Amino acid sequence: MLTQIRAEKPIIHCLTNHVVSNFQANGLLSLGASPIMGEAPEEAADLAALAGAVSLNIGTLNETTVTSMLIAGKAANKKGVPVILDPVGAGATPYRLSTVKRILEEVEVSVLRCNAGELAAIMGADWQSKGVDAGAGEADITQLARSSAKKLSVIVAVTGKTDVVTDGDTVIENASGDPIMTSVTGMGCLLSAVVAAFSAVSPDRPLAAAAEALRFYGLAGEKAAQHVKGPGSFQTAFLDALSSVRQSDIDELNRMEDGAL
Amino acid sequence: MLTQIRAEKPIIHCLTNHVVSNFQANGLLSLGASPIMGEAPEEAADLAALAGAVSLNIGTLNETTVTSMLIAGKAANKKGVPVILDPVGAGATPYRLSTVKRILEEVEVSVLRCNAGELAAIMGADWQSKGVDAGAGEADITQLARSSAKKLSVIVAVTGKTDVVTDGDTVIENASGDPIMTSVTGMGCLLSAVVAAFSAVSPDRPLAAAAEALRFYGLAGEKAAQHVKGPGSFQTAFLDALSSVRQSDIDELNRMEDGAL
Amino acid sequence: MLTQIRAEKPIIHCLTNHVVSNFQANGLLSLGASPIMGEAPEEAADLAALAGAVSLNIGTLNETTVTSMLIAGKAANKKGVPVILDPVGAGATPYRLSTVKRILEEVEVSVLRCNAGELAAIMGADWQSKGVDAGAGEADITQLARSSAKKLSVIVAVTGKTDVVTDGDTVIENASGDPIMTSVTGMGCLLSAVVAAFSAVSPDRPLAAAAEALRFYGLAGEKAAQHVKGPGSFQTAFLDALSSVRQSDIDELNRMEDGAL
Predict the structure, then answer these.
(1) Is C199 helix (H, G, I), strand (E, B) or coil?
(2) For labeling, which of A66, A91, A130, C140 is most exposed (least CB within 10 Å)?
(3) Which CATH number describes the domain made up of A2-260?
(4) CB-CB: which of B18, B20, B131 is closest to A34?
(5) Do B29 and C231 touch (CB under 8 A)?
């Protein structure tokens, strides 16, 4: 799929938070996709209709951007364009949680990309979360992901030390990545946009697209983590790595894992 | 003009999109100018009146920022402060196109800095554009730029593989630059702010200011492109290069070209 | 305090401008704190209640974010959570100045972190400021800081070539840092958030927290300034340094200075 992204350069419409918007756009460009950012209600449907996938992110949500996310999501649904949702900090405030639930009700979401704490908050599961971090809880993440995927009729991609991607039945795990990835803001947000890019070139295979995106992303993290001196130089090296990891690197990892993608 | 910017540190008031605001402010600081960012209608006129030039950018426009751009533009006009307009993705949505046209009608714009696809959209010319990219069309860019400059009474600076700057009569070309410049988000947006900085120290010579800004910018891109490993390290090296390219580097390029600036 | 931040990872709720939000979040993460960004009025009180400290920054203020800052500030006050205010460009426009005064009236601010020009504007002192830069004026900065701290009942931390931190009586000076720190946008904004992180682990010692934050920050700047090639590579190196400066580095500097923290 990576080869296809670099050949087709799909447009990814991002309605995202202002903390990560630069990093997200640069990450998509490095990968080979074409980001278009914009969140005015006046143009949300037009931008979504141009796109190969739509990436929704509630990181610094407000009344206007929530309106635009709903408009863009519905416009994407009408055209069969995949919608990826990142419920940043869903458990942190009632406003975030109710917004996420509203989006999930009104928009047909293809992939829900989140961490365990966010998923637990959305499902009302018991979980100790702190701010926008993943937190640590007792729930069995794989079980939670499977039941969520079935109940919400979405692909769930929960990232953490080991990522879990599932449509409710099939479960794909991914352990690629490096711990330093948690020390840069927006790494999860950018990942969701990368899942959108993979979904854009494989709209009929959302499970495989999400899993392949996660493997690719972890490989880029591992590559960037070599020789860096801290979070600043990692961020730079990671943007470089997004442009230099090859399809064959992913293929090799797939062979080592289940090869099922 | 570069020497003058570094000596006078002109204030550049940027009303810009949140994707590139950090990169734009850092780029202006590296160059030697003093960015001031702010887009509340309550202070738009006050900030514009403080500035040596005003840089308008519609990348993530909304109702409020459009109001502020009109206020700032008119306040700048009253004081004879140059206004540079970057019509990001003008052809992508009707909202963007109508906003650009409204700004061009209500504000006296000094330099319109854009790519070929955006210019074609504004002029209603036939052009195949995709999202915010330049696209590829049949129109003769130089001819389009000249006729646009005359019709709109602005300096037109269309950037691409070869940049074209014109007041409708005189045409200056620039080929400095490096292909990797297209793999970082906001490179065009920052360029528009750099044109604003050059315009601030040469308000009576907008054509020369725009052309010299483009040559400077391309030289910085060439310098940064040496030894980089990808888009991430290029971005870092480019900010460094904006502070290290010298007036004599531009002078040498001018001598090699037409020397007419 | 640095050791404590890295152990406890306090949540810092930032209501900040979109120019620096990414840099501020990444700086806090590098330091070891947990940033949470968000400025909708609907969740401002909830986020502030989660936090160990609240960082208010008016860099790209608008009607909505000012409302949220007041809500978050008051919610923090109710829970005894320290509030740090960064009055970016307070003297640049009447809108900024009146907003800063309103926040100082309605919210109990723990630390006012600013430059000399901003402090002079707030206090109505004679000072020549230009845009958001510090400017140069005739007032005696230490005297101005002391009288401001008494009048406003806050800790005042004025940064410049030599930083001055005071509660109105005790004055602590800090000369750590490097001139290149002024060539990156948001260095002051991030510093204010770092003061918030130190305050979060020492809520009862705001003077010492502010002073220790400034010394730490200057040390990180000195460390990063070694071997860099310009503002771009400095920014990267600075984020690295925020994660690598140790408590013992600060202790050593404290011993060389007054040792009074």
Answers:
(1) helix
(2) C140
(3) 3.40.1190.20
(4) B131
(5) yes
